[in-house]
């Protein structure tokens, strides 16, 4: 970069030109100032230029850089500043030392990015990291497509998940696709002739040589099987000159903390490429911090690595071998409706998100027949945290299927304590087979620490429903309202309007299962429709759509008779072009979360007027969010329009008939136990929505119950729902899941301190003082 002084300014601003047009290995580049000392006031055209500049400076100084935190504008959601940090910043990995070296660039009104904060001091030795990026690589030849043998187990899933939830720094967007070109091999089986070391399971040691990275991987996996642990492919490093791979790490599957099953194990083997083209073990740690299981088959399936294939996603070919290499047959690849151009865009986006959000999770489904990518799933830490709070009722929204589409984009959506939709994960669905949805639901469940929902709303297609019943066997399943309306319009079109009126009355006004079945059969007989195929089919599946059957299941207030509004609304749909997808996605997500923040603020700072003198109204105003309190308040006010008559009493048990004044047909039965204050109503509002109905409130008023029992105030509807889930789950949850939930909760609270604490110097001082005092109580300060 070259410096130019701008006249008319008190501070000199230096112009940094794009480093990609300079060769940092030439003397000309060194003399031009590329990688020169950074200082406050240094200017860049883009944030990417600043990142490239800091990478070159880091390579010359002797450390590695990575992308750190970014900050967004509260007005339009655009990125307003970025941090680039030393790779040893933080403590999430064993290799990190909490180094504080960084630069921060801020976007000015002119569109330029100016370096406004800097810290040059490191807390570790310099020079050891530069070798990862400055090694002179050998020319890389693209290998021919590789055939990989596998013994097929009919009971094992056909897809192998590539989980990239690790927080390690990834190399580059170009390498992202190549990291997924791995395929399953039969358990414990090595098929290449020259892998005698791998079969023997001999001890690895520094200086051990291999002909290829794949040979090293299979050796380490064979060694792991003998010792008793599982292996994951870890970090890789690339040359800054030609982007070829210079070193790779193979780690214990329990490395890191991003998943409840991981415990920060430091065991690994790193190999480095030599000038001769071979690979050598240059770093090694054999010590594990967990119990080992020698002799147990610990591999989910060996992975084959393509060192540097240039043939795209389809460069690895798989053939199935049955009965010891006999009966060879070429398997067919699955259909894929995701355009190939989407994968590099999304995978690059996922990796960039991981540098900002260590709880960001994504996974890719691989076609074992061709080695190509299929479906994608992703969820940031906020979505995973929201699932711990509001994942009891989930909508799997595939409204992209409504018509002709180009982007098969699907979302998992829950409903928060303000009854607002919250994102619980996103997916690109490659095809509509059962296998595709099985992989997707299993991956979502794994990302959410294995906590299944109580109820799911989804399309009635057999592939989706079969996958749901297999992955969430205990969940109540309900069909999407929009799809039911579409089916009704299509199949009831030739029927007279009288039938349609009675049909809807049967669905929406039947109070019990017995009443629904009776009215339905009368309707079918009246119009002679016993032979109608569609009516017969939907009646057989009535427990998934008929209101009388759904009332007893909790659905968090998701409306039964209304169409679900897509989470991203019209801004993001199946026709969104590739170049606009990520921008619209982030804008829509931020808009929804801003609405949630507003409701949080209103619930804590606004107080609705009381409409009665009942103590239960004051109790619920104090506990519930504004939205939920208004629903409760309406039920309480409406209870004054009902009459209550005791119809049965035996011991502590009583039964009441509650009917509306002036309307004999609107009546419900309420059962009450005076011993434990248990109460139930035939309308089943509490079972369905988690809020007491007007009928129970009428009985409570009659019996002078002045305060609602705690069992009838669900914590998910209260103002501080986000802080209560750990308390609610202390029983019946594993220690690993509990730790993951606590991490997400604390991370969410910390992010709010950062967001509001950096808005001004005064708020920063206040936030810092609060955290410092809290640190004293936690005894983290010695």
TrEMBL record:
Q: Output the InterPro entries linked to this UniProt entry.
A: FAR1_DNA_bnd_dom, FHY3/FAR1, MULE_transposase_dom, Znf_PMZ, Znf_SWIM
- Provide the GO MF annotations for this entry: zinc ion binding
**Is Zinc-finger one of the keywords?**
yes
Keyword Nucleus carried by entry: yes
Q: Which SMART domains match?
A: ZnF_PMZ
Q: Which family does it belong to?
A: Belongs to the FHY3/FAR1 family.
Ranges of Low complexity composition bias in the record: 133-146
What PANTHER family does UniProt report for this protein, alphabetically?
Answer: PROTEIN FAR1-RELATED SEQUENCE 10-RELATED, PROTEIN FAR1-RELATED SEQUENCE 12-RELATED
The record's subcellular locations are: Nucleus
Composition-biased stretches (Basic and acidic residues): 160-171
Q: Its principal location? A: nucleus
Q: What is this protein called?
A: Protein FAR1-RELATED SEQUENCE
Q: Which Pfam families match?
A: FAR1, MULE, SWIM
GO terms, biological process: regulation of DNA-templated transcription
Q: Which UniProt keywords apply?
A: Metal-binding, Nucleus, Zinc, Zinc-finger
Instruction: Give the UniProt entry's GO cellular component terms.
Output: nucleus
**Region annotated Disordered, chain positions:** 122-199
The source organism is Brassica oleracea
| UniProt domain SWIM-type: residue ranges | 668-704
Annotated function: Putative transcription activator involved in regulating light control of development.
């Amino acid at each position: 970069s070259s410096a130019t002084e701008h006249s008319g300014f008190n501070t000199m601003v230096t112009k940094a030109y794009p480093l990609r047009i300079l060769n940092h290995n030439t003397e000309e580049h060194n003399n031009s100032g590329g990688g020169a000392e950074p200082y406050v006031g240094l200017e860049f055209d883009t944030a990417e230029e600043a990142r490239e500049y800091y990478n070159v400076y880091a390579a010359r100084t002797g450390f590695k850089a990575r992308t750190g935190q970014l900050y967004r504008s509260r007005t339009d959601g655009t990125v307003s500043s970025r941090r680039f940090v030393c790779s040893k910043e933080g403590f999430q990995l064993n290799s990190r030392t909490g180094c504080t070296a960084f630069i921060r660039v801020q976007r000015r009104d002119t569109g330029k990015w100016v370096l406004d904060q800097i810290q040059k001091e490191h807390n570790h030795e310099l020079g050891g990291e530069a070798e990862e990026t400055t090694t002179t690589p050998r020319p890389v030849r693209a290998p021919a497509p590789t055939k990989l043998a596998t013994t097929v187990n009919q009971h094992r899933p056909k897809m192998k998940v590539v989980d990239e939830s690790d927080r390690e720094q990834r190399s580059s967007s170009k390498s992202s696709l190549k990291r997924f070109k791995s395929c399953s091999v039969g358990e414990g089986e090595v098929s290449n002739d020259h892998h005698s070391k791998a079969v023997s399971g001999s001890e690895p040691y520094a200086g051990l040589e291999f002909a290829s990275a794949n040979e090293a991987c299979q050796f380490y996996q064979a060694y792991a099987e003998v010792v008793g642990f599982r292996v994951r492919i870890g970090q890789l490093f690339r040359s800054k000159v030609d982007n070829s791979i210079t070193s790779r790490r193979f780690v214990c599957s329990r490395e890191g903390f991003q998943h409840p099953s991981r415990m920060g194990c430091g065991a690994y083997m790193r190999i480095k490429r030599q000038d001769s083209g071979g690979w050598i073990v240059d770093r090694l740690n054999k010590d594990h911090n967990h119990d080992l299981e020698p002799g147990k088959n610990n591999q989910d399936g060996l992975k084959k690595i393509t060192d540097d294939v240039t043939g795209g996603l389809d460069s690895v070919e798989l053939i199935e071998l049955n009965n010891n290499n006999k009966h060879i047959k070429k398997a067919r690849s699955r259909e894929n409706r995701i355009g190939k151009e989407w994968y590099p865009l999304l995978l690059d986006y996922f990796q960039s998100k991981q540098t900002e959000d260590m709880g960001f999770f994504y996974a890719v489904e691989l076609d074992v027949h061709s080695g190509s990518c299929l479906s994608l799933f992703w969820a940031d830490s906020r979505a995973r945290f929201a699932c711990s709070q509001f994942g009891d009722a989930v909508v799997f929204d595939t409204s992209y299927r409504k018509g002709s589409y180009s982007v098969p984009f699907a979302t998992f959506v829950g409903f928060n304590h303000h009854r607002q939709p919250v994102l619980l994960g996103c997916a690109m669905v490659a095809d509509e087979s059962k296998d595709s949805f099985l992989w997707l639901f299993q991956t979502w469940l794994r990302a959410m620490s294995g906590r299944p929902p109580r109820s799911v709303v989804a399309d009635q297609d057999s592939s989706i429903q079969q996958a749901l019943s297999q992955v969430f066997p205990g969940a109540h399943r309900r069909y999407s309202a929009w799809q039911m309306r579409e089916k009704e319009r299509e199949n009831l079109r030739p029927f007279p309007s009288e039938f349609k009126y009675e049909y809807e009355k049967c669905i929406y006004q039947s109070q019990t299962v017995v009443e629904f079945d009776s009215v339905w059969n009368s309707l079918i007989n009246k119009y002679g429709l016993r032979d109608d195929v569609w009516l017969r089919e939907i009646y057989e599946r009535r427990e998934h759509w008929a209101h009388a059957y759904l009332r007893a299941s909790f659905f968090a207030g998701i409306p039964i008779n209304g169409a679900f509004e897509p989470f991203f609304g019209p801004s993001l749909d199946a026709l969104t072009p590739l170049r606009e997808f990520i921008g619209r996605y982030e804008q829509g997500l931020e808009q929804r979360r801003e609405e949630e923040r507003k409701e949080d603020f209103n619930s804590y700072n606004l107080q609705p007027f009381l409409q009665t003198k009942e103590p239960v109204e004051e109790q619920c105003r104090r506990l519930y969010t504004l939205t939920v309190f208004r629903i409760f308040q309406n039920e309480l006010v409406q209870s004054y329009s009902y009459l209550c008559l005791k119809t049965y009493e035996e011991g502590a048990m009583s039964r009441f008939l509650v009917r509306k004044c002036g309307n004999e047909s609107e009546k419900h039965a309420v059962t009450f136990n005076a011993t434990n204050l248990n109460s139930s109503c035939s309308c089943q509002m509490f079972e369905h929505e988690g809020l007491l109905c007007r009928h129970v409130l009428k009985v409570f008023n009659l019996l002078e119950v002045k305060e609602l029992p705690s069992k009838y105030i669900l914590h998910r509807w209260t103002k501080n729902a986000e802080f209560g889930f750990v308390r609610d789950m202390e029983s019946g949850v594993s220690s690993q899941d509990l730790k993951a939930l606590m991490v997400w909760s604390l991370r969410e609270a910390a992010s709010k301190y950062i967001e509001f604490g950096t808005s001004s110097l005064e708020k920063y001082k206040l936030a810092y003082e609060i955290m410092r005092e809290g640190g004293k109580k936690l005894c983290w300060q010695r």
